[in-house]
Design goal:
single chain; alpha/beta; 6-stranded mixed sheet; 4-stranded parallel sheet; about 40% helix; about 15% strand; globular
Length: about 425
């Protein structure tokens, strides 16, 4: 007996075998993995999870692979930080950061989804993997393909941040820079996927790939002492991450590992690419595609595949979806670094910017727990925040010169505190 029944259309319910498929041939709805939860319940226990590896594979029984994991064996199980300093500034006693800036191998949450996708791709017999990406996914596919000895193609927008381009090239994949935005890249990859027998992790392997995001919910509950948080703030690109975190919470509740879920799920977008936030604010049941224009390039998907489902999840949970300006994104990045020593990329700035906005609105009650998902490392997007950071002191190698610089800096700080320009 298998834990996977197959694939099922989210719209019409038509079923398919657990193959490399992602779209319903009847209604063109998206396919997702259908599980045999009765069987899973005979295999998984809290004790088994606790005795498992310190990686996302401790939840193997709830992930869409048939055999043992073969890729990304060290991905996941990243730190949960009680952010007391940031919480104090925002008036939150129980603020936590789920910190995927230190994920293995490539310092973003994409290492989770890629570990699952490439393990499944190998099970299905593929020898070539590929993706359309705004950066982090390409980095992760490139690294894990190198580890798994798979041929690799990654397709990226040509204006991607330099750090992320380098983060692909170092692993020696075939990097294809496309003159266009992510939606242009994704359309091209859909055409290529129809011509070549490759495992595109976010196209024909997408049903398996997206399930890896559930582990961010599993880990949060386990690290909070087998409890669901009262609130979570999740960045939105395609919308898949948010929907799968919700799914992960509910799966643990259905298994009896946690109490019934009452978590309010909040979405975060950058104003320059906020089609999901716009749909939420305008009370629409459809997403209007936009042309992205934001420094938060990892979230710059103008036509998000799961945007509609993300809105449904947020509404059902009693949450909200907010957006922040590019200036607020940078403020979020610097605030997080200054208070907690965590250098997040622009997506993290979006999350913290929205968290700050929601806290100011009084959305979080005293004593409630809040988890903010920080999904990627700031070393990849240094150019976005660099102009806001100033420059180092430049002194001669003498004590007197240092003391003069210290006096000048102290006077400058004092003037700023008094509002003197």
């Amino acid at each position: 007996m298998s834990k996977m029944k197959g694939l099922k259309c989210k719209e019409c319910g038509k079923t398919y075998p657990a193959a490399a498929l992602h779209v319903c041939e009847f209604c063109f709805g998206p396919l997702e993995v259908s599980y045999n939860y009765d069987y899973i319940k005979t295999k998984i226990t809290k004790e088994k999870i606790l005795q498992g590896p310190k990686s996302l594979w401790r939840y193997q029984d709830l992930l869409p692979i048939e055999g043992e994991p073969t890729v990304g064996l060290n991905a996941g199980f990243t730190p949960m930080i009680h952010a007391k300093n940031l919480g104090a500034e925002l008036g939150l006693d129980y603020l936590y950061l789920k910190n995927d800036t230190v994920n293995c191998l490539t310092l973003s949450f994409k290492d989770r989804v890629v570990a699952v996708a490439l393990t499944r791709a190998k099970e299905l017999g593929f020898d070539t993997v590929a993706c359309a990406s705004t950066g982090n996914l390409a980095n992760s596919v490139s690294a894990h393909a190198a580890e798994a000895r798979l041929r690799c193609f990654v397709f990226i927008p040509a204006d991607l941040e330099a750090g992320k381009v380098l983060g692909n090239l170092i692993y020696r994949p075939n990097v294809v820079a496309v003159n266009g935005n992510y939606d242009d890249v994704n359309r091209l990859c859909s055409e290529i996927a129809g011509e070549y027998s490759w495992a595109f992790v976010n196209i024909n392997i997408r049903p398996y790939y997206s399930e890896g995001s559930k582990t961010l919910a599993y880990e949060a509950m386990e690290q909070l002492g087998w409890r669901t948080p009262d609130h979570v703030v999740v960045p939105i690109a395609s919308g898949s991450l948010l929907t799968k975190i919700s799914k992960g919470f509910n799966e643990f509740a259905d298994l009896g590992f946690v109490s019934p879920v009452k978590t309010q799920i909040h979405g975060a977008q950058a104003e320059g690419c906020s089609p999901v936030a716009a749909a939420f604010k305008e009370k629409r049941d459809f997403i209007k595609p936009v042309k992205p224009k934001t420094i938060a390039k990892s979230l710059a998907i103008g036509n998000p595949a799961d945007g509609f489902y993300a809105v449904k999840v947020v509404l059902a949970s009693g949450g909200v979806i907010e957006h922040v300006t590019d200036e607020e994104v940078v403020e979020g990045m610097t605030l997080l670094a200054r208070t907690e020593g965590v250098f997040a990329e622009t997506a993290g700035g979006v999350t913290i910017g929205v968290l700050k906005k929601l806290a100011k609105k009084g959305l979080f009650r005293k004593g409630e727990s809040v988890v903010a998902y920080i999904t990627g490392n700031g070393l990849k997007t240094q150019e976005a925040v660099a102009p806001a950071l100033g420059v180092p002191w430049n002194i001669q190698p003498s004590l007197a010169n240092f003391q003069e610089a210290l006096k000048a800096a102290s006077a400058d700080t004092s003037n700023k505190e008094r509002g003197v320009q």
